[in-house]
Amino acid sequence: MSLQGKRALVTGASRGIGAAIAKALAAEGADVAITYEKSADAAAEVVRAVETHGRRGVAIQADSADPEAVGASVEKAAAALGGLDILVNNAGIIRLSEVKDMALTDIDALLNVNVRAPVLASKAAIPHLDDGGRIINIGSYFADRVPGGAGLSVYSLTKSALTAFTKGLARELGSRNITVNVVQPGSIDTDMNPAHGDFGPVLKALSPLNRYGTVDDIGNAVAFLASAKAQYITGTAVTVDGGANA
Predict the structure, then answer these.
(1) Residue 194 gets which letter from DSSP?
(2) Among 30, 153, 156, 245, which one has the highest count of C-beta atoms within 10 angstroms of its own C-beta?
(3) By the 8 A CB rule, do 140 and 188 touch?
(4) What predicted TM-score, i.e. pTM, was given to this entire model?
(5) 3-state secondary structure of 204
(6) For residue 181, which phi and psi values (nearest 5 degrees)?
């Protein structure tokens, strides 16, 4: 168990990729706090899954669009777990629209949740992280490639910003042996982007494997980056996309 005794916070983890990350970290020995916005029952299920590994699980309600809630959730997680070793900034949203038609409220929502929240969560977590800690951001392969005609311009902008933030923060924290990386999922079968959905055929065709990935593919990548096995990897984007950006 490569994360025995470690304490992790995963934001936006009541379902999908976030839930898989929380379970993967617990399977490797970490105690895990998660945040959720509205799905209290789903969050409780994730906590129970964490506890089946003999680890402590904690669910904290927090809206990632609310800057005060973001900071407070980190403090609550650190208090509940007795500190923090790993922060996974997973919470994110998507709004699809061409720029000329996109409402200001949607632009603000994307920037607030996908960019501002990871910055604020990291800011709050850094004082709690011991030397050798981990910050792992969850981006998107759309940070590197933007397929035409899908209204992805602003969403992709936020994920590119997250990659730049990752690189800069890795420089800031390197002297403390704290690594900072971003995992860039490709098309992952979730409620937000189901393999059988409207975009399924197009997104599958981008990959040489001609299929969607699973949430466990991302959970496993995060668990690796959180472990000592990844101690010399920092400031890096790990793209898990089935070769779509090859």
Answers:
(1) -
(2) 30
(3) no
(4) 0.96
(5) helix
(6) -135, 165
* Residue 128, pLDDT score: 98
At 194, the amino acid letter reads P
**What pLDDT, on a 0 to 100 scale, did the predictor assign at position 193?**
87
Question: What does the block give as tokens for 21?
Answer: 């990350």
Separation in Å, CA 71 to CA 76, 139, 143: 9, 20, 26
Q: Which two tokens stand for residue 186?
A: 């490709």
Distance CA 129, CA 34 (A): 17
Write 40-46 long-range contacts (CB < 8 A, 24+).
Answer: 42/14, 42/15, 43/13, 43/14, 46/13, 46/14, 46/15, 46/19, 46/22
pLDDT per position as a tens digit, 31-78 = 999 999 999 999 999 999 999 999 999 999 999 999 999 999 999 999
Among residues 36, 155, 212, 232, the one annotated as catalytic is 155
Q: Are 97 and 106 in contact (CB under 8 A)?
A: yes
Looking at residue 148, its pLDDT comes to: 66
Give residue 96's Cα distance to chain centre: 20
Those residues of the chain that have pLDDT short of 50 are: none
Closest CA to 4 of 77, 75, 85, 89: 85
Reply yes or no on whether 212 is catalytic: no
| pLDDT, position 192 | 83
pLDDT score, position 149: 66
Q: String of b and e for 107-135 (b: at least 16 CB within 10 Å)?
A: bebbbbbbbbbbbbbbebbbebbeeebbb
